[in-house]
Amino acid sequence: MKTQLSKEDLLKAYRKMREIREFEDRVHVEFAKGTLPGFVHLYSGEEAVAVGVCEHLNDKDRIASTHRGHGHCIAKGVELEGMMAEIYGKKTGTCGGKGGSMHIADLDKGMMGANGIVGAGPPLIAGASLASKLRKDGSVGVVFFGDGASNQGTNFESMNLAVTLDLPMIFVLENNGYAESTSPKYSAKVGSENIADRARGFGMPAVTVDGNDFFAVYEAAGEAIERARKGGGPTFIECKTMRYFGHFEGDAQTYRPKNEVKDARANDCPLKRFADAVTSAGLVDAAEIEAVDKEVLAQVEQAVKDAENAPQPDLDALMNDVYVSY
Amino acid sequence: MTSKVRGNTTVGIIANPASGRDIRRLISAASGFSIAEKANIVRRLCLGMRLIGVDRVCMIPDQSGIAGSLLHSKEQGIKVLGEQWPEIELLDMPVEEKAVDTLRAVDMMVDMGVRVIIVLGGDGTHRLVANNCGSIPMIALSTGTNNAFPHFQEATVAGMAAGLVAKGAVSVCEATQRNKVLRVEINGQCRDLALVDLCLTDDIWVGARAMWKPEKVKEIFVTYAESDAIGLSSVAGLANPIPRDSGQGLHLTLCPPGEGMLTLCAPIAPGLILPVGVAELNILRPHEVVSVSMENGVVTLDGEREFVFRKGDEINVWLDLDGPFTIDVPRVLHIAAERGVFTWPSPYICSDSLHQRVAE
Question: Cα separation of B56 and B76, whole Å?
């Protein structure tokens, strides 16, 4: 693992986080206008988790995502132009416009898919990690899941399997404080409200980190992924973070304290923290950060225009890709 | 029978839900303390304190479940086992799940006039308490990773010791010791303190906080250096032991293993023993100010990276003998035993069920 990131590395990481933020904030606006079909769940506020982890991965490494999957896709290298078109349901979308927000997948990038089923990711990555182990290609599998999914049986079964088979698998729990609308105080009562404790019960190393601090996530993920590549088995990383929007777009969020998001945006924003850290340390100039912000804003603006103008999927492609022949 | 000593007494408890769960679980063989176990430890503390007649325990609230589990245990213990508990008061304060929670809780405990503060955590948690507790004595219990400062101690007995001091059965001056601290000043402002060790690393970020890579550490300052210590202070403890109660500290400059005046194999974290080169070693005398010559880096306090400094920042470190007081639990119990505190019938024991059992 790199212990001193270069300026190029730092700017790349910041750009990814900014891409996620701009993408999600724009989808939030477009959804409110009624221009997007389907349903969206936004990742704004959790950027440091996806990017802190995926900066250690290559295209052979596989990840599985959640219903809140746009951030994972962008961090793993899926092109945001294709993603935007996919969310618009257009032919030029990553999955031909037939997957939509909750089914964006790009296997060439090792992105096995967002997933509308809560807790569906861990078994997928247990399988992918088993394939990595059998192929001995040094790749790893990473599953992102939330505090709600942490209660699903699929997650417990996958933890058991990962430990039993010593799989190169990393469980990244994005604990954003709400299982849909329910606090872990009520939803994660088994033995502890601190979910990493459960993983220790399965016999795997489990750590809890500040999920709004890119560097904290980056360090923990780096150690876990390196360990997995060397055959050290699975690791569980609990990232304490916060989503800035509702569980879904349209969620009235009556379950949240009044100023929770406002305070988080002002005092604990992962992008601001990153920018403050690297500029105050003299590693990156403030002007370079601003330049990235402008470039990404323009990129997202163009992606929306392209998506709006792109054609719908052809009617005769309706049945394509529905079933796959092995 | 009621306690013959001091009336209304309150003891504070700081139980850090985050202690014992940092990245060192991943890079070393460090143990983890679950939330459930921490709640169980607090339960035993409460039962030990109630025996001596502590009326009230005020506790830091948390969002991880320690306080919630404790209240559940209390309800169950009273209903099912007939236990006697002190009143439990959760401090009315916001919970941010950050270090500021501990600082805020200690401030409130000081204002409330608690007699003792019991701390569950590692070196880092105790450092936070030491920042704000003033002259209120601590009982330092280990639930962290590197535990150079706190001790492993059965909580029931620690609770009894807290009760004995809080109620005045054993006086503070009989059973406490004053600890040294390292104070760090940045650009003329006193920034923080360390109870055991202060290190300078060449990191550029605070990141996952814990420090476990000796190759990144350039200088180590210690208040004391025990040869059986774990963590970065072990380097000093193996190079030149300094007792906890001596009037001096130590300042080491590190270098790559194999270079400098000596190379040591030091236990940097549980299960992680690494070679460390020592280039220079100097005794640190009280209030002798050492100015840091590094231009960029991170200041690590008691094993955790705390703040970044850069070119132009002026950093000074010095040893202060007037740090926090800690209660010597074995000594308290020893004194109490010699005084017959636990010999029946005892005016110090406040337990209806024990009285009933003896009467039967």
Answer: 18
| Cβ-based neighbours of B212, under 8 Å, separated by 6 or more | B23, B24, B27, B28, B268, B269, B272
Largest pairwise CA distance in chain A: 57
Residue A110 and residue A218: Cα distance in Å, rounded? 19
Distance CA(B238)–CA(B148), nearest Å, equals 14
A220 → closest Cβ in B26, B36, B296? B26
- What length does chain B have? 360
Residue whose C-alpha is closest to residue B43's, from B118, B108, B125: B118
Pairing type for strands B116-121 and B138-142 reads parallel
Domain ranges of chain B: 10-179+324-359, 181-320
| pLDDT band at residue A191 using 50, 70 and 90 as cut-offs | very low
Q: Which CATH class is domain B181-320?
A: mainly beta
- Which domains are assigned to chain A? 7-306 (3.40.50.970)
Contacts of A3 in chain B (CB under 8 A): 203, 213, 216
pTM of the model: 0.85
Closest C-alpha to B180, from B226, B219, B118 = B226
CB B239 within 8 A of CB B252: yes
Nearest to B341 by CA among B4, B12, B8: B4
Put simply, the answer to whether A207 touches B21 (Cβ < 8 Å) is yes
Q: A213 vs B207: CB contact, 8 Å cut-off? A: yes
CATH number of B10-179+324-359: 3.40.50
What's the pLDDT tens digit per position in B36-76? Answer: 888 999 999 999 999 998 999 999 998 888 888 889 889 98
| ipTM for the predicted complex | 0.75
